[in-house]
């Protein structure tokens, strides 16, 4: 720590202060979203986006404050793994949530997946004994799922 | 173990990434440490052999850098949008599940597109149909048919950008033809 902060130090301090506050607000936004959104999948939106940005801003301010470039690769790796894993976990939760009907249908303006899942489920019960051997979405694929153009 | 081996050239991006992670975790990028990291990376890649990621064989850094900047901008926009919706609309928000047919059939492309659109405004992948490479996307705050068209266009645009960065030559040619037509 220098006894007399230079102009550069002031700028870095200011930038990291802004980053920290905005990052904290983003994390707060994620929490508000989790509380206020009506169903599981809209909550997953809240859990993915502001959270990733909030972490990015907080890591950036840590990097700015530590003033050593050695820490940047570690922070970069931490953030990249977050970016890689968050959409996957959100997808898995969303997928399970959709199939176990944890959603409010009346809040959906369009649902182009319902027919496909329904078809797969019907096929599965019709086939009876073969059920469980194959993934339902693979079955849906063979039936040819909702045509993109026609359903618009 | 009769799984298909891939050439060292195809495996190189993975090895470079593993060495980078090694260096980052030790916070030491000296030659000796990197060399030891490379040794461990090769051993790990041989012992814990996963199905190879089939890269497109090309990577355009000229297109990747602007894309990364735009992507970061969109993450910021998405975060503020979700924050606004959470505070202003909350329980009254309306959504939609939309099917989007992608151009590419490569696993890498479908995965990358899914990741990108999960982090940009208002979309989340609910279901992937691998055989037809169709993504089923949950859109936040979709109120009309126009919003659905916009959402679909956004996803297709994200895929087009990714194809320009690291798609195979065939995918790139098909894309050029499509845009030109």
Describe it:
- The complex is a heterodimer of chains A (152) and B (181).
- Chain A is mainly alpha-helical.
- Chain A has two domains: 7-85; 112-151, no CATH class.
- Chain A has helices spanning 7-36, 40-66, 71-99, 114-127, 136-143; one strand at 108-111.
- By secondary structure, chain B is mainly α.
- Chain B has a three-stranded antiparallel β-sheet with strand order 1-3-2, covered by helices on one side.
- In chain B, strand 2 and strand 3 form a beta hairpin.
- The interface between A and B is large, with 59 and 57 residues.
In short:
The complex is a heterodimer of chains A (152) and B (181). Chain A has 152 residues and is mostly helical.
* SS class of chain B: mainly alpha
Quaternary class: heterodimer
With helices defined by DSSP (H or I, 4 residues minimum), what is the helix count of chain B? 6
Sequence stretches where pLDDT stays below 50 over 5 or more residues of chain B: none
Radius of gyration of chain B: 20 Å
> Which geometry of chain B do the CA atoms define?
globular
Rg of chain A, rounded, reads 23 Å
Could you report the average pLDDT of chain B, rounded to the nearest whole number? 81
Count of separate DSSP helical elements of chain A: 5
User: Strand count, sense and closure of the main sheet of chain B?
Assistant: 3 strands, antiparallel
Tell the overall outline of chain A.
Answer: elongated
Largest interface: A-B, 59 and 57 residues
Q: Give the percentage of residues in beta strands of chain B.
A: 5-15%
Count of beta strands of chain A:
1
The run of helices and strands of chain B is HHHEHEEHH
Largest β-sheet summary of chain A:
none
Order of helices and strands of chain A: HHHEHH
N- to C-terminal distance of chain B: 47 Å
Strand content of chain A: under 5%
Q: What's the total number of strands of chain B? A: 3
State the helical fraction of chain B. Answer: 55-70%
């Amino acid at each position: 720590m220098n006894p007399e902060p230079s102009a550069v130090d002031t700028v870095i301090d200011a930038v990291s202060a802004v980053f920290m506050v905005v990052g904290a607000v983003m994390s707060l936004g994620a929490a508000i979203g989790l509380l206020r959104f009506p169903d599981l999948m809209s909550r997953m939106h809240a859990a993915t986006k502001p959270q990733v940005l909030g972490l990015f801003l907080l890591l950036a301010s840590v990097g700015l404050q530590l003033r050593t470039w050695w820490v940047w690769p570690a922070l970069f790796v931490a953030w990249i793994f977050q970016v890689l894993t968050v959409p996957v976990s959100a997808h898995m939760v969303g997928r399970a949530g959709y199939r176990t009907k944890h959603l409010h249908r009346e809040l959906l303006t369009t649902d182009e997946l319902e027919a496909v899942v329904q078809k797969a489920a019907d096929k599965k019960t019709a086939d009876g004994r073969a059920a469980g051997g194959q993934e339902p979405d693979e079955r849906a694929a063979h039936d040819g799922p909702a045509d993109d153009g026609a359903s618009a | 173990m009769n799984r298909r081996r891939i050439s060292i050239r195809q495996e190189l991006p993975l090895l470079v990434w593993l060495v980078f992670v090694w260096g980052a975790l030790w916070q030491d990028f000296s030659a000796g440490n990197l060399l030891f990291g490379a040794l461990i990376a090769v051993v790990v890649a041989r012992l814990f052999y996963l199905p190879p990621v089939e890269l497109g064989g090309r990577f355009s850094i000229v297109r990747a850098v602007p894309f990364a900047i735009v992507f970061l901008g969109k993450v910021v926009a998405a975060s503020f949008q979700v924050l606004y919706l959470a505070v202003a609309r909350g329980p009254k928000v309306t959504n939609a599940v939309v099917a989007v047919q992608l151009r590419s059939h490569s696993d890498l492309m479908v995965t990358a597109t899914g990741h990108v659109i999960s982090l940009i405004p208002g979309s989340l992948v609910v279901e992937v149909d691998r055989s037809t490479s169709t993504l089923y996307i949950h859109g936040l705050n979709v109120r009309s048919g126009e919003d659905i068209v916009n959402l679909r266009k956004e996803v297709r645009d994200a895929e087009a950008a990714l194809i320009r960065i690291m798609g195979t030559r065939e995918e790139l040619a098909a894309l050029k033809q499509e845009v030109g037509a």
